[in-house]
Amino acid sequence: MKTIFLPLGDHSVVSNTNVTYILELARVLKATLYVSKLYKEPGRSGGLPAKSLKMAQIAEQEIKEELTAYNTEGVKIRVKPLEGDDWVEAVGKFHQKTNLDLIVLTPKHHNINQANFLGKTAGGLLRETETAVLVVPVDYTYKPISRILMAVKSGIVNDKMTLDPLRSIKKRYKADLRLLQIKTPQYLPEDSEFDANLGELVDMYKSSENATVFQGLLEHLNANNPDMLCVFKRKRGFFEKLWDDNSVKKSVFESRIPLLVLKEKQ
């Protein structure tokens, strides 16, 4: 993994409490961390005087000031303000110029009165970009990743590059990867086939019969006690359906530990 993207700002999809986690992750992975904030330049007819700093420069200064509160030693950081008022559009354009391997998002705060796990901005980035996503809970304290629990219905992987983020995390942390194959009512015989690239990463395998992938994940979560969850976002899959409207309700899905979402190109 070479690049990680971290959005900040008033309309950020990442809380400042997540910054420490991401800095430690980037440090271990030896990845370049792009830290960003949205800005919008005023029109020519009004706004700032000609000698004033441009909004991009102001956003860059704000990012640098925020980062002074954290230990950034050993992390290669690139401050990159993006123009616009829509994260999905801005990140999409940036990804075309600079290949991003991972985007960091945060769920809504763990407030019992908050109905959604992911809001529309975070859900939109997860659903409408091609890049793998790491969802880090708001108040989650960093600790080394020693065990990853991956939940799948099918062992088929059409593009081996889809596994690159998982492969990097497992290698750098020397993490134990436990694969849970969940056989839902829609399970097909070909789903039992396993891609060799996935198989070589797995340290332990178990199967379970459940109504949905998420139900199977919940059933085996405590027994495995993972530091990270991992799922695929596939076309017509359970997790793809979750983000049909760019938001996810807690009544349908919620994770209290980091969630890595791998995306297969359609």
TrEMBL record:
UspA domain boundaries: 10-137
Top-level taxon: Bacteria
Name of this chain's protein: Nucleotide-binding universal stress UspA family protein
Phylogenetic lineage: Bacteria, Pseudomonadati, Bacteroidota, Flavobacteriia, Flavobacteriales
